[in-house]
Design brief:
473 residues; mainly alpha; DNA Cyclobutane Dipyrimidine Photolyase, subunit A, domain 3; 3 domains; 5 strands; binds flavin-adenine dinucleotide
Length: 473
């Protein structure tokens, strides 16, 4: 009896180069060939913001070109679509790169069951070190980055592999990628209100070639990374995060392009390791995708009334009157990406100055970010909120004005995203409301809160949370 084709299920590995699971699929299938397949999961699309879905559709379009038009796209729940397609095409093996979010693990386990005799082979991962592989000497997973990093560093980083040289693709009827964008963002939380109507950001260059080009441009700049990475007005970071999110590049490829011994390179590789750390923490603590990692912080009172919702929307629109926060939030709206330093300041502001639930902010980031990723986003938020891994404890509150003075001293970043402040020089353009009294620019919003008062309020709530936790034992 002749053997059927293998099916390769593309997920977070939308590339041909250094795609180890794809190479294994091709090798295993031999002359029977491989069906390159993407399942457009309608539930995920409805809950994802249009900016990221637009980027995903472009990435798939570019992948399809590299596959010579062979990509098969089908819409629906993979638990239904995969078994049906396997039957339709007489597929004998399914391959995919392993995924690690709690939802993806559940889905894959169920798909494997439903495929029955046709094996689902999960190979490699979107990380250098597979989540769940780094342990302390006493075989405990880490909740603190620095010791995790030390052990992570001892793992070998394999050389990236070339794309398949003579792949044998098998195609089938396919559906339009444009439908993805139509389905995107149909389900959103009620507290978003009218901000959900804000236009999506334009889609940047997508796909494997665009990612390789960005990496080539960044590699010579890595030697300034240590200093430039904190200055939001200069292109000091790689901006590869959306590509890493969808796997149009693998972190192995990134790290191999910047290997070396300088401090700047080490700092850059550390940032890649943060991505791996958060995936590992999520792997061991699946609840941390929606719940606090530190149980004490469950008792932190947050505001949810009508005024809180209005404040949330002002924050999301970049209209708090705090220039660095507003510039960052508008960068997110305008480009779908936000500088890491400003993400930290904007997140801290939402939690500690507006007293809102970090999940509201995390949801908005996931809605707007091109790189929106459950592990990095939820834990980036929990870090800023003081509810997650190590570092910034709750009582450390970022001062948004001091952060602006330190990291945007000449106001270049603030001027780039807040046109109302264009006539206002630093340092006034870094002050709440664009400066006090007569200097306040007429078109820029007055501060919606007083930072000093709200900082004190945050500390009061923090003390209360600790007390409640202590009383409840
Ligand atoms: C509140 C908050 C939310 C965040 N949400 C996300 C998210 O949804 N998706 C996401 O990819 N990153 C997220 N980050 C981490 C970080 O801000 C971005 O990865 C980084 O800004 C991407 O820009 P870059 O590619 O130029 O980074 P570079 O500085 O060039 O770093 C290279 C890569 O390392 C990884 N990286 C860098 N910093 C971090 C970090 N602090 N945590 C985890 N990985 C990191 C990213 O994959 C990044 O592309 C968040 C951070 C915070 C504080």
């Amino acid at each position: 009896m002749s053997r059927g084709p293998a099916l390769f299920w593309f997920r977070r590995d939308l590339r041909l180069a250094d795609n180890r699971a794809l190479l294994e699929a091709l090798e295993s299938a031999g002359v029977s060939g491989v069906v390159p397949f993407f399942c457009a999961d309608e539930t995920l699309l409805r809950g994802a913001g249009p900016t990221r879905v637009g980027f995903l559709a472009e990435t798939l379009d570019s992948l399809d070109s590299l596959l010579g038009g062979a990509l098969v796209v089908r819409y629906g729940d993979p638990r239904v679509v995969l078994p049906a397609l396997v039957k339709e095409l007489g597929v004998t093996e399914v391959f995919a790169t392993e995924e690690f979010t709690p939802a993806a693990r559940d889905r894959d386990a169920r798909v494997a069951q439903l495929l029955g005799d046709v094996p689902l082979r999960l190979i490699d991962s979107p990380y250098i070190v597979r989540p769940g592989s780094v342990f302390s000497q006493s075989h405990e997973p880490y909740k603190v980055f620095t010791p995790f990093r030390r052990v992570w560093d001892t793992f070998e980083i394999p050389e990236p592999l070339a794309p398949p040289s003579t792949p044998q693709w098998v195609s089938a009827s396919t559906e339009s990628l444009a439908r993805m964008v139509e389905l995107a963002g149909r389900a959103w939380p009620e507290y978003f209100g009218d901000i959900v109507e804000l236009a999506p950001a334009p889609t940047p260059a997508a796909g494997e070639r665009a990612a390789a080009q960005m990496l080539a441009e960044f590699a010579p700049r890595v030697d300034q990374y240590g200093t430039d990475r904190n200055i939001p007005s200069v292109p000091g970071t790689s901006q590869l995060s959306p590509h890493l999110r969808f796997g149009s590049i693998h972190p192995r490829q990134v790290v191999h392009s910047v290997l070396g011994d300088s401090d700047d390179r080490r700092v850059f590789v550390s940032e890649i390791a943060w991505r791996e750390f958060y995936a590992d923490v999520l792997f061991h603590n699946p609840h941390s995708s929606y719940d606090v990692l530190q149980p004490t912080m469950n008792h932190l009172p947050v505001d949810t009334d009508a005024k809180a919702r209005e404040r949330f929307r002002a924050w999301a629109r970049g209209e708090t009157g705090y220039p660095l926060v507003d510039a960052g939030m508008r960068q997110l709206l305008d480009t779908g990406w936000m500088h890491n330093r400003v993400r930290m300041v904007a997140a801290s502001f939402l939690v500690k100055h507006l007293h809102l639930d970090w999940r509201w902010g995390a949801k908005w980031f996931m809605w707007r970010l091109l790189d929106g990723d459950v592990a990095s986003n939820q834990h980036g938020w929990q870090w800023a909120a003081g509810t997650g891994t190590d570092a910034a404890p709750y009582h450390r509150v970022f001062n948004p004005t001091l952060q602006a003075e330190r990291f945007d001293p000449d106001g270049a970043f603030v001027h780039q995203f807040i046109p109302e402040l264009s006539g206002v020089a630093a340092p006034q353009c870094l002050q709440p409301g664009g400066g006090d009294g007569l200097l306040a620019p007429p078109n820029y919003v007055r501060p919606i809160i007083d930072a000093k008062t709200e900082r004190d309020e945050a500390l009061r709530r923090f003390a209360l949370a600790r007390e409640t936790a202590a009383n409840r034992g």
